[in-house]
Amino acid sequence: MKKGKKKGSGVVLWSILTVLFTVLFAGACIGSNLAFASAQAVNIALKTPTHKTVGKDDSAVYYESDFSSVEELEAHDKEIAEQLTGEGAVLLKNDNNTLPLAAGSKVSTLSHSSVDVVTCGTGSADIDTSKAPTWKQALEDVGFDVNPVLWDFYTNGAGKDYVRSPSKGTSLGDRSAWHINEVPVSLYSTNVKAADAAAGANIADVRSSFASYGDAAIVMLSRVAGEGADLEYGDFVDGTNVLSLTNEEKDMLKMAKEEFARTIVLINSTNAMECDFLNDPEYGVDAALWIGYTGSYGLNAVADILAGNVNPSGHLVDTYCYDNTTAPGLVDYYANQYTNYDEKDTSKWYSVANGGLDGNGYYTTYQEGIYVGYRYYETRYEDVVMGTQNVGEYDYASTVAYPFGYGMSYTTFDWSNFQSSYDAATDSFNISVDVKNTGSVAGKEVVQAYFQSPYTEYDKANGIEKASVELCGFGKTQLLAPGESETVTINVPRSELACYDENVAQTYILEAGDYYLTAAHNAHDAVNNVLAAKGYTTANGMTANGDAAFTYTYTNGVTDTETYSISAVTGEKITNQLDSADMTYYGYDEMNMLTRANWTGTWPEKIAIEANDALLVDINPYQSYKGIDGSTTEMPTMGADNGMTLGMMIGKDYDDPDWDKLLDQVTYEEMAELVGKGYHNTAMVQSVSKPATTDDNGPQGFTQTLTGVATCHAAYSDENIMAATFNVDLMKEVGICIGNDMLDLGASGLYGPAMNIHRTAYSGRNFEYYSEDPFLSGKIAAAEVEGIQSKGVYVYIKHFALNDTESKCRCIATFTSEQAIREVYLKSFETAVTEGGAKCVMNAFARIGGIWSGAHKGLQTNILRGEWGLTGFNLTDFSGNAAFANYGITMKSFDVAQGLLAGTDSWDSSAQQWTSELIKTYQGDPDITQAMREATHRILYTVANSNAMNGFTADTKIVGVTPWWKTALICVDVVLGILVAVSIFMLVKRIKARKAAKALTAPAEDQE
Fold it and tell me: Which one of 3.40.50.720, 3.60.20.10, 3.40.50.1100, 3.40.50.1700 gives the CATH number of domain 90-311?
């Protein structure tokens, strides 16, 4: 007889399986719900199609790559990337012709940063630089003999433990971890195995290797910054200013002076370092080169510069000081908390605790007004020379190390035959200069044009500020051989000379008086030229005599308040739109603004603000919209069957009547999806056969680090280096390269370029922004934008506007003057739109006063569209993902109704929140629905004229399909559900069987 199974074993087994399958089923259901809620992000990450196209025509190509293979494309990218750094790096100092170094020089690369060069800032713009050469490789490729012992010391020896923190890819938010962390000089005397494996010998110490590689010490000084946190004065270890030298760096330079024939400093930073050490004899620096962040291939160009294969021609995009704290904007740069802020008081604040963003309880004041960078330093200098009242104690020579626009060359240039005149027919000035290379090597020269407008009694009485000079044009020569000449001609529209009068005329005016135009090498040279034209000399305190021969005087007879009060692009009236930036708008006393009429009496100071009810209304607008009283807006047609496809609209004007037929087909739900879920894409609209697009980041080239989809073909040097080239032709070519990269990688929208202003040297995202100067920023951006968009890529210029700090930047309130906003902080955006043709913008987190930028109609509609003529669409900055919603967090800072009515079109979110709000809360509201329709129009128009339409014709249609991962998850859920049911069935069956068995084997007395 066979032995029977152990009693109850089946029940135990099926009990275990039931619990196991139930847990797995519950987990799978939860996971599926999370994935479905984040479907947009999952599809982007997996590159999963959500539709199929029917009738696609591969011959219908509207935008083509310039290259037949990836290899050709990447080779060209590398060439342009190297040229970019070669023309953007700035030679700051070159005593006794230290550079270029002789061929075959034996050099030592000092500092740990030599083996950890900063190629890109941190955050969303972080880019793949895995193809970048090491600094040692770059130097050896141009023929230098690099100290292997020192290199091994940093990579494998005792020096390897001194990693800069935070390093690339880590968060800047943890300020307690910050330290430059340079290797102490004492450690250079430790034993180390030589990297030269052929020798294979142990040497006494690292320092003894210097004699064999003593032609030059090349010292790399690096500072890394990025999204999320600004740099601060102290490094939180020894309290030193993070943009000055640490004690270890000072000791290292002193060691270099003792040990090497010459010392060359490379400044690997986009935040302007304090340059007091460069001319201090204690450190013995012979030459200095600013190299910014180097991207994939910039180090090759830096090595070429040191070897003399490339003659540097870059010019500074910021004023470099001995002491950065002299900037007036730094007084109130970091965020201030409202005196009555309470994060937990949900009746007043949308704080972090209840779905708000970290800046909601904070504000900042731009009390310096227009006096940013050289506009402050050069203007106060001129007032000192002219003996202006209340100018105070100010010594330019001990304050500014290198002025804006400064840059040296390995050759010399002679300028002559300055010409300038006003052309009434074009309402512009033409400036020309003959430039001759008088040196012994080929090189490029930059000619900069500046203007000065009269600072009048009217200005002083009505709060208009005028800088001593402002950049208004520039030109760069071709590569001139020794003895070769070129005439550089610069056209300056007279409109550049107008100023914004926010208090009286409330528009742009051109005042009566004398205007000066000058050709100069840098901003300080320009001021000196103008002062010379006024009769001032070094006897009056000038740092050097200017050249009046390079200055032209234009006299405007009558103040003109009309000519520039009308947009030359759209014909719309230009008038005040940004009143909310003024503190009096909320009932506060008028904010002190720095004025050159009284430097000492109006210097910025900290201002304590208690948020009043009027301000709180604007700070906390979430779902405050209840309809527009008296509105006569009618609901638009939706879901019609007009037989239209987006392919039919390719190339048609924005106001073509066929758009109405197309838009009538779109359903409310489709519009809600398109508006509410714009995270790194524009959504598919099946009713009109619009494909989904891929949009991603890119201030230094196309990058998909956030979505993890693909690597870029090339990472370019940072935007500071781009601007420092002063070469719009080169920047257009950089843009074309980026456009080609995106075509190859299948992307249609680029989150960039970024063009906020270097308000101070301490912004975490200065590497993403071009300059302290809006004119230079705008011209360089316009060229780059034109190049990128030539490949059917629509750019989102960002962050619009006033995202000039990372300190509590997410919804921080900003107070300043409309003149400052228009002349300094909006001008670069304006040029990118009106001259570069930028299609789209990404809004800022920042508030204008208390109003979030995306909900500010004056900014997003009246200025951006009414004055500048933008026809593309507006996207918010990051506004949430499904993870927030799944944890019960509702983001409340970017109200969808207020944003739509102000002119914002899409929310950078993968969550369902904004789409659900539109469907559940606002469906049926004609004003919101019409705003959604207009947003849909703008998005569809942009995509219809992009590379996303390659292969689409009028007959191409889109049919939705279920992504494979959704099918897989559903199958897993179903299978696990079946297994749960089977296990429960079997468990019940086993339990019944066991009960029956017990009944049969029970004692007789227990049976009836």
Answer: 3.40.50.1700
